[in-house]
Amino acid sequence: MKVIGVSRGARYSPNHVGNDAAIFNQVMDCLGAAGCMVERYSEQEFLSVPMPDVSTIVVGMARDAHTLSKLHQWEEAGIEVVNSPRGVENCVRRPMTERLLQHGIPHPASWILSTAGADCSCLTFPCWVKRGDAHAMVKEDVSYAATAVQVGDILDGFRRRGIATAVVNEHLQGDLVKFYGVQDTSFFHWFYPSSGSHSKFGLEAINGMAKGYPFEVNVLKRCADDAARVLDVPIYGGDAVVMADGGIKLIDFNDWPSFAPCREEAGVAIARYVLERMWVSDTVKSKV
């Protein structure tokens, strides 16, 4: 059983380079302990790796366009890739928003705007303005806006950076919840980011301290698994807002996050999921 692991490039791990590397290595170590022949590559190193036998599975956190292009070629040749490069591309802000809304996943009201002369009269304030063409890589890629003037300034900043489209989400009042999961497994971890320091850019402070509104964790897990299926990212994380009436809406979804608050448990769950995809026996999976 051969596994090729592809880690995430540093520019795609803003403020989480160490955490992303740690979960990647945790999963690779678990797969090695189960008896897999594991090869680990950076995104750059992977570009020169020859295509293996179709019995190989690729387990990766890659996000660079060149790496994803090669992974597409491998998938088309019959090699299984977790997460699929299609899923990684689906988690880019605009396609993610469009897919979640199209499939009825609970999500804030959203608008797709051109950064060149957009009409802001349709928007609800306050709102969040996010670059539409990529994952957030710097703090300015996601901004809170209370007025049309502020939205216009943010769009101008995107345009000057060569970003042609933006996604605008309505701001939801409620408790911000972060979650991590592996689709169709029992593993699911959630927490209030306001109670700790696990944050990329500190934007969670906008919602303030969580009030502890009651909600059904199984409903959040079901919504998250549904989103994972729609986006094709079985190893996932994200953010949701729990409103005062217990209603839940997903506001962000990520392909293979850092799992920093639950790394050890997550590493085992991800490795077992990969082994399941490889159709290995329960005896082998028990070694993880």
What does this 3D model show about the protein?
By secondary structure, the chain is an alpha/beta fold. It has three domains: 106 residues, Response regulator (Rossmann fold); 62 residues, Dna Ligase, domain 1 (2-Layer Sandwich), CATH 3.30.1490; 81 residues, no CATH class. The chain contains nine helices and twelve strands. The strands form three sheets. It has a four-stranded parallel β-sheet with strand order 2-1-3-4, with helices on both faces. It has a four-stranded antiparallel β-sheet with strand order 5-8-6-7, with helices on both faces. A four-stranded antiparallel β-sheet has the order 10-9-11-12. A hairpin with a 5-residue loop joins β11 and β12. α1 crosses α8. The radius of gyration is 19 Å and the shape is globular.
CATH superfamily of the largest domain, please?
Answer: Response regulator
**How many domains?**
3
Tell me the CATH topology of the largest domain: Rossmann fold
SSE topology string: EHEHEHEHHEEEHEEEHEEHH
CATH class of the largest domain: Alpha Beta
Structural class category: alpha/beta
Helix fraction by DSSP (H/I, runs of at least 4): 25-40%
Terminal CA distance reads 14 Å
Q: Classify the oligomer.
A: single chain
List the helices and strands and how they pair.
Layout lengths: L1 E5 L10 H17 L3 E5 L1 H4 L10 E4 L4 H12 L3 E3 L2 H6 L2 H10 L7 E5 L12 E5 L10 E4 L2 H13 L4 E6 L4 E8 L5 E4 L25 H15 L3 E8 L5 E8 L7 H15 L4 H4 L3
Parallel strand pairs: 1-2, 1-3, 3-4
Antiparallel strand pairs: 5-8, 6-7, 6-8, 9-10, 9-11, 11-12
Helix pairs in contact: 1-8
